[in-house]
Fold this sequence. Notes:
Largest sheet: 11 strands, mixed
Strand content: 35-45%
Order of helices and strands: EEEEEEEEEHEEEEEEEEEEEHEEEE
Number of helices: 2
Number of strands: 24
Radius of gyration: 23 Å
Number of domains: 2
Helix content: under 10%
Distance between the termini: 78 Å
Structural class: mainly beta
Amino acid sequence: MLHAGRGYIFQGTNTGVLKMTVKNPKWTASDKDAQLESYPSSNASDASWNFIGNPYTSYYNIDQLAYDAPITVWTGNGYEAYRPGDDDYAFAPYTAFFVQTPDDSNSVGFKAEGRETKNESEETVRKAKARRARAKINTERMLINLTISDPAAAEEEYIDKTRIVFNDKKSLNYETNCDAAKFFSAERSIEIYTLDHEGNKYSINERPLSDGQVVLGISCNKSGTYVLSAPRMDKTVYLLDTESGDTSSLSDGCEISVNEGEFTSRYVIVTEEAVTAITEMAADDADAEPAYDLSGRRVKASTYHGVTIQKGHKVLK
C-alpha cells in the first residue's frame, strides 16, 4: 500500500516501465482561485509580478484558466512565455509560474472540471495544435513567432523564442493584459526578445503595426552562428541588419553570426511595406552611407538630426 504524501524509492534488476493501479480513485476537487497582488513600479514591465501555481495533483491546460493574460514558466534551462488562446501548453501538477496583475483582474481561476490526466492533457494539446493549424489568419491579431536555434546542434529544437502580435487596438507601450516581459537565463547560449521606444524588453510584444518595424534584441552567452526562423508568420516579415543594410527572408530561416554580448539596435524585424520604404529611401540616397536611428529605422543622414548608426558607429548630428 502506497500512502499519500510519502515518497518511495524502487530498485529493480531490469529496465522497464513500472505501472501502479489505483483502485476506485477519488477524482474530486473544488474550484480554486489564486489572488493576485499589485506592486507599483515606475516601469510597467516590472510592476505587480506574482508567483503562483497549478493547485491540483493533475495536469491543467492553459486554455482552462479564468485568466487571459500571458504567463511565464521556468522550463528547466530558461523561461518561456505563453498566452491562453495563442499557445498549446499544459501545466504539470503543482507547476509554478509568474503572472502580472492586469488592470481588469486580480485573480487567476482554476476550475476543477479542467483537470486532466497526462494522456488526456497530451491529447488536448495535440487537438489544439491541429485546430490552430487549420484556422484562418485573424487580420486583427497577426502573430509572428520567432525562434533561434543552433544549426550545429544534434537536436533541431529551438534555443529561445519571442513573439510579435500586430494588433492596431493595442498601444506601443507595455500593457500587462497582453504583453510579457523577457526573463533571462544564463543557461541558454543565446536569447532573443523585442524592444520598444522606452527600452522595455518583451517575450510577447502585442502592438500596432505602426511603421512595420520592431527592434529585435539579442543576448548572446556563446559566440557562434545561429538560425533565426519564423515558424508562424501571419504577416510576412524580414530581418534587417542595420550594420550591413542587408535584408533577409525569414520564410526558411536565416543564419546570423553573433559575438558574445547584448545587441539592442543592430537587428530589426520589418514588414514588406517597411522593406519597400527602406528600399525607396536607399534609392533616393544611393550615394550616401546607410544611416539608422536608434530604433533601427533607416533615415537620411543628410537631413536627420540626432544620433544615428553608420558603419556600426554612433554619430551625433
